[in-house]
Here is the input.
Amino acid sequence: MTSANSFRVLILGHGEMGRAMEYLLRQRHRLTVWERHPKPGTPPVALDSVVAEQDFILFCLHTINRTQGLLGREIALTNYIRSPAWTPRTPGINRQLKKPDESKLYPPGLAADSGTVAMTSANSFRVLILGHGEMGRAMEYLLRRRHRLTVWERHPKPGTPAVVLDAVAAEQDFILFCLPASPHFELANRLQPRLRRDGVCLSVAKGLDEHGRTAALALEGALGPAAVFGVLYGPMISEEIRDGRPAFAQAGTKHADTYGRVRELFAGTSLYLEHSTDIAGISWSAVLKNVYAMLFGVADEMELGDNTRGYLAVAAVNELERLVAGLGGLPESPRRLAGLGDLITTATSAGSHHHEVGRRLARGQEALTGEGVHTLEMVHAHGLFDSRGYPLFDLIGRMLAEPATARAQMQNFLNRLCL
Here is the structure.
């Protein structure tokens, strides 16, 4: 937006934000800066005499108490402020805040004052881990002390005895799919005749297969709608898990009793869980957030600053809410661990692959790979939705199509926000 209008603006306070507002507005508007204690050599501004001529009054003060003190003069100032001048009003500023409900602040099983999982269990389960990459090793680290684990790899490392998948599947209480989404359907279809009736299949895959299916859709397609399966999505950086640090996830299952078994599986570990029956919603949140995470890498490589990160986080979640609802999930799911929680982790972690892909994209590099890149390809290949209705999603797609212009595209996008 551009305009020939020049406003009269009174800036109250000349600290960090006062100077920031002055920098933004000084080229086009007529500014007056008031300070309670002017710097030596700076002529004082008589507040009551200048307020009547202002179009805008910006309260750029450090503390609520100072703002309160000035707002306490509103009755007097009203005699001077001309209509339609705008001043901020803070009704109920002295209102007492209610103590928050701690049950909503902590993951189930995590006490507010304990820092440990309250639930423990003597049960030892038989667990088959499919895949021994980053997440496979993380699951092994979490579960090895209490459960009987079998690790299967399609291509075992030299010297590692091969596991006959069909022979061991029938005796498992849990099968953890710690693999990309692509082989889920094939492996689940292979295992389906051998699974125990009460055996639980869990996936941590945050991508799409070659048919554009999430891991949950692939498992349900292979195992049938009556199958007992679930997904684990949230901030779960594998290196942090193996370092003994906390991780957080939503366990998406259709039924509460299945979630109870999953809770029992991870009881006593550093993985804190909350339940969701919105399997579609948390699946699409976890999958699509990888696309948005790349934009944070682009912004950081361009040194656009923390303010841009804040904007991207809000705008990305806004788009995710609409996308998830259109794909059959609940619009609030992107605001939970599988969406916003995992987005912040993936978008800001120093070791994040998707953040690094964004940085490389801003350098003009081509032939980039990763779950987010593959997700974009599958969305377009299978027409899962029209990305033109989602500006950030569409932006990263156009950047990947033309890496040489990625920086210019990002800057043009930001410039258009001001039009």
